[in-house]
Structures are given as C-alpha cells and as structure tokens.
Specification:
alpha/beta; eight-stranded mixed sheet; two-stranded antiparallel ribbon; disordered N terminus
C-alpha cells in the first residue's frame, strides 16, 4: 500500500539547535502558519492606518467600522492580499510584512501631518508631491523627517530580524533544496497566488468604475461615502476604503439630457439674455490690465474667536473693502486647496459640481487636455497678453503643464522673477517683490495684460519668520504661530496698499481682484472648536479699479471664486459673454457652491431640493455647461465663451 509523503521545508540559515525535534515542518504547516501570520500582520497594519485618521478616539468609529459597514474587515483583506502578493513575488514572508508595515507607517505619518495642517487625509493624487521633496521639507522640520525615516526603516529591519529568529516556525521554502516535484508545487503555488493577488489589487485602482468588485464589497453593507468631509469619510469607511474612494474617476457624471441639441438651446437662452443685459453696459475691459491676485493664506484673523491680537494686521485692506466690491470667499478647505481656488477663478467651474473624487483638477483633469477653457484664452482673444506669476517652484500642482493648457504665454517663477527679496527669516519671496514684478510686466508690455499672481509669503510654516511678531492674547502656546502669521499679514497689507497706490498714478487702466485662498493650518484644537460652522472657511476678497468712478461700495454675499469673473465685469460695467452671464445669474440665487453644500444669498446653507424653480433651472444649466466645457463635446463653447480654449 502506497502513501503520499508531504513535502517538508527547511530553512538553510536556521541554527541546528533551533530545529524542531520532529524535523523540518511540512509545507502545509508552513503555509498555514504563513497565512495566519500574514493575516495578523494585516490586522496590525489596518489598525495603524486607522489610528492615523485619529478615528480610533471617536465613539462612532467602532460601530461604523465593525458593525454598520464592516469596513475594517475589508481594509484588512486588501492589506492581506497585498502582503500575499509580495510574499508570492519575493518568497520571503517577513520581508513582505516588513515592507507593508513600513509603507503603512510612512502613509500613516503623512496622514497625521496632513490632517493636522489641512484637516484632510492623504489622497492618491498626493503621490505627485513625493516628487517634490523640497516642498515636503518646507512643511515639516528636517528633524521630524529624519526621525520618521529612521522609524520607517527600523520597522522594516525589525521585521526582517524577527523573521530570522522565527525561521523555524516560518521557514522559507528554498526551491533548490526541494525535490523537483515539490519545487514545482511551491513555484506553481507562488505563481497562482501572485497572479490572483495582482488581479485583485489591479481592481482597487479601478474602484470608481461601474461593477468594480471592491466597491461592491464596500457597499454590500451600505457604506455611506461621506464625500463632503473626507476626514469623516476615512474614519467611517476605513482608511483603505476612503483612499480607494478617491481613486481616479471621470470629472463629472453625464447630466441628464446632455446632448448637442440641449446645449444649443442653452446657448440660445444665455446668448439672448446676455444681449439684453449688455445693452445697458457702457464699459469695456479690452484696454484694461486685469490682475488676479491669489494671496496665499490671506485671511482676517480678527474675525475668529478664541484669541485677541494686539492690533489689526490688515487695516488698509479693511478700508479698501469698505469702498469697493468686496466680501468673503468660501474656501474649499481649511489649510489648503490653493490650486483649486485658482482653478475656479480662472475657469468659472465649481469643484462642487464635479464628482467628489475630483480633488485637484490641476493634477487630475487639465493636464490630460490639449487645451482648457479659461479666462486666459478669452482675454487673449480680446488683445491681452497673458502672464502667470508664482514666486515658487514650477512643479507644484503641475502648474507648468496647466498654465500651458490654459494658454499663458509666460510663466514667471522663483528662478525667473526680477526680485527675490524676503523678509527677516521668512524663506518665501515677499509679496512686495511679487507685486513689483507685476508692475514691471505692465510697464514692459504695450498690450493690456492678464496677470495671474499666486503669492507665497504667508505660506506655512510660519514659525520664527519675523523678528517682531504681533502679540496675541488668549491662545496659549498657539499664540506664537498666530502672532508670526499675523505679522506676515501686516506685511501683505502694506504691500497691497503700496501696489494699488502705484497703479493709481499709472496712466494705464487696471482692475485688480485680490482674494485669500484659505486659512492657514496653524490653529490649535481650541481655536478650531471655538469657530464652528463656516468661520474657518471664509477669506476676504475685493475688486479694485484705478478708473475714476468704478470703485463703489458693494458688499457681496459669501461667494465661491467661480463667480469672481462676472463680479469683475460688474465693476468695469463691461459686456459679458453668455457663459459669464449664466454664472452671474446663478450667483444671484446661489452665491456659493461647495461639495455637498450650497449657500443662499444670506449665507445660510440650502439644499438643492429646496431651491426655487428658477434657481434649480439655473443650477441645472450650469451643470450641463460645466460638463460640456470640461469633459463633454464642447458643443456650446464657441457660442458661450468664444476664444476661451486657446
């Protein structure tokens, strides 16, 4: 009677005194122990990632992840498959576990830092910043980076050393030491596991595609994707689930009724309306310099509760706002989102009408197009030269590619700007130097200019930037950062006033849009808790002209930057193209649009289902037009915004 002898696996590097009395472990035992050990490691990695969202400390976390949606189990499964894939490829279990744990630790540390600074978790699109080490080092101290790197490397080394110590319990099958048939069995097993795991992991990259296996599993128990707050989304649906939810996806879902005929009807409607409204407009922007100034982290800290400043850091800007079209912009997020606010300003397109996964059009949408409709092309078609100024590195948010798609003829950055002056110990080029560059460009060009300036002076970190910070009362240790930041605002306030004063005496007509993009990520939990609602998402803006009679006091409701262009045309009393007329009409009913949030003219949240019929129709038309211009057929572009895609 014959019997089957199960192959046994030996680990050549194991000392003789560590051998088990019964001899080498059977392959079945090795695999069983490896499966259990890798699953335990996957659970530990999932816990690390969940801890990085700080969700472990919230009462709802356990209920959401283990009972309501079961996301923790699925997160663990994805991680387990990743470990299995690496095990199949490398043939070393503890190396695979070490690599995944080190990766999880790196992502977890990055997630903690990003949540602290920007109140949002890491996204797949953030991988672009890995190619910008200088930017990363400007966000955190070099000492922190060194410690974090040492910890990550230490985790991997520790896993390898543990693997060596446990080589008897978890021996590595050495193909050359096994009989031929057994070696083929192990090789076939690794190949099969590797292929299956690779196919499943490839599915994660297509998470947002119809019929995706992983999305179906996450939604099997009714996972609620909380896209309006990505931090909450990750906490409720698991770090891995939240991360996969933000995998690349088409910018918008196709709106109901979208086709060439419907876009022709919309173009007819707003062409006629534009003609009627423009009949009463007597101004023009054809011979006017247009300067769009996105002032990094420019806000009004005196509006926040929880602390007091020794003096008002922006008195000149505040006085300007009382005499011009001005108000508050609704920022997309706290502590970040600069490129998104710039995108909305230049295109009139709202992030709130895109899919929630469209986190950064500059990185995820515009570079993939040959050209993209924007104010750049529109003003170029009316005789303007288009110049972008950003006194920092060109690679951030793929600006170099984006500006080329928009049609900018020149991009002035940190190595090409005329002045590179800084203030005290602030490493960033000053706002005064940036404004001086704009003045130089205006003087050097015969044609009117469209200048898009994105400043850097008030970018974080703000620690120890100035020798004379503004004193702060009531903020505790957080007051040091606030005082430094406020002093930077004061420098901006002075530079803006001087810039506008020079434009006042200039013979060239110029109109300036000035706005802050978001609050800085410097405030502690006490200040954040004291300022609930929209307080941490409101920044000042104003539109100023050096033409006599144009500056009239007008307080605008809280506004999204996608509506800045029609407001600028209002100040100039200039005729608007049909697209801006549509934006203007929407703004009169819904002045602010965010992902999952609309504001009415009183600044109060309103649901789309609560809009009156006229406002609902306008918003539906805008959604159709945005789809058409961004990823649709651009059927209405030449009629509604001719020349905008240069």
């Amino acid at each position: 009677m014959s019997s089957v002898v199960e192959p046994r696996v030996t680990e050549g590097s194991a000392p003789d005194d560590e051998r088990t009395a019964s001899g080498p472990a059977p392959l079945r035992t090795v695999l069983r122990r490896g499966v259990i050990g890798s699953l335990q490691a996957a659970v530990a990695v999932a816990v690390v990632l969940e801890a990085s969202t700080l969700g472990l400390f919230y009462p709802r976390w356990f209920k959401d992840q283990f009972f309501d949606g079961g996301a923790f189990y699925l997160d663990t499964l994805v991680i387990w498959i990743l470990i299995g894939f690496l095990w199949a490829v490398l043939g070393r279990l503890w190396w695979s576990i070490g690599l995944v744990m080190a990766l999880a630790l790196a992502v977890g540390i990055g997630n903690l830092v990003k949540i602290q600074i920007r109140e949002e978790p890491v996204y797949p699109s953030d991988l672009d910043f890995v190619r910008q080490p200088e930017f990363l080092t400007s966000m955190v101290s070099p000492v922190f980076l060194v410690v974090a790197l040492a910890l990550i490397v230490g985790v991997f080394v520790a896993a390898v050393r543990i693997g060596r110590r446990m080589s008897v319990r978890y021996p590595r099958p050495r193909l050359r030491s096994l009989p031929r048939e057994h070696a083929l069995l192990v090789l076939g097993l690794r190949l099969g596991v590797g292929v299956m795991a690779a196919l499943l992991l490839m599915q994660t990259t297509q998470f947002n595609q119809p019929g995706n296996v992983w999305r179906g599993l996450y939604e099997l128990r009714g996972n609620d994707w909380r896209y309006w707050s990505q931090k909450t989304n990750y906490r409720s649906n698991g770090f891995v689930g939240g991360f996969l939810f933000n995998m690349p996806v088409s910018a918008m879902a196709k709106p109901q009724g979208y086709d060439e005929a419907e876009m022709a009807r919309i173009a007819d409607r707003y062409t006629a309306l534009s003609k009627d409204l423009n009949a009463e407009r007597t101004g023009s922007l054809d011979d006017v310099n247009i300067v769009l100034v996105l002032s990094e982290s420019f806000t009004d800290p005196t509006e926040l509760k929880g602390f007091d400043l020794e003096r008002d850091p922006i008195p000149r800007t505040r006085a300007l706002m009382q005499d011009t079209t001005s108000g508050h912009m609704l920022a997309q997020m706290y502590g970040g989102g600069t490129a998104n606010m710039e995108f909305e300003t230049l295109t009139g397109q709202s992030l709130g009408l895109f899919r929630p996964q469209m986190l950064s059009p500059y990185q995820m949408l515009v570079p993939g197009k040959a050209n993209y409709p924007s104010a750049v092309g529109w003003f170029k078609s009316h005789g303007h030269d288009a110049i972008a100024v950003h006194p920092y590195r060109v690679g951030m948010y793929k600006r170099e590619q984006v500006y080329e798609r928009f049609g900018f003829e020149s991009f002035i950055h940190d190595t090409t700007i005329g002045e590179t002056d800084t203030i005290d110990d602030n490493p960033f080029i000053s706002d005064k130097a940036a404004f001086d560059e704009v003045l130089t460009q205006i003087d050097d060009h015969d044609n009117p200019l469209l200048v898009n300036l994105v400043t850097m002076q008030n970018h974080i970190p703000v620690d120890h930037n100035y020798d004379d910070p503004i004193k702060v009362h009531g903020a505790g240790d957080n007051g040091k950062k606030i005082g430094q930041y406020a002093r930077g605002l004061e420098h901006t306030d002075e530079a803006l006033a001087a810039f506008l004063e020079k434009l006042t005496t200039s013979p060239e007509k110029t109109i300036v849009l000035f706005y802050g993009d978001h609050l800085p990520g410097i405030y502690g939990s006490k200040v954040k808790n004291d300022n609930a609602g929209l307080s941490l998402y409101r920044t000042p803006f104003l539109i100023w002209s050096n033409e006599p009679g144009r500056n009239v006091a007008r307080q605008v409701p809280t506004t999204s930057p996608s509506f800045f262009l029609p407001l600028l045309y209002d100040v100039a009393n200039a005729p608007m193209p049909p697209y801006l007329t549509l934006l203007d009409q929407v703004h009169q009913h819904v002045p602010a649009i965010q992902q999952g949030r609309l504001l009415d003219t009183s600044g109060e949240p309103i649901k789309e289902s609560e809009l009156d019929p006229e406002a609902a129709q306008l918003l539906a038309d805008l959604r159709l037009v945005q789809f058409d211009f961004s990823i649709g057929g651009r059927f209405a572009l030449d009629r509604m915004w001719p020349g905008s895609a240069s």
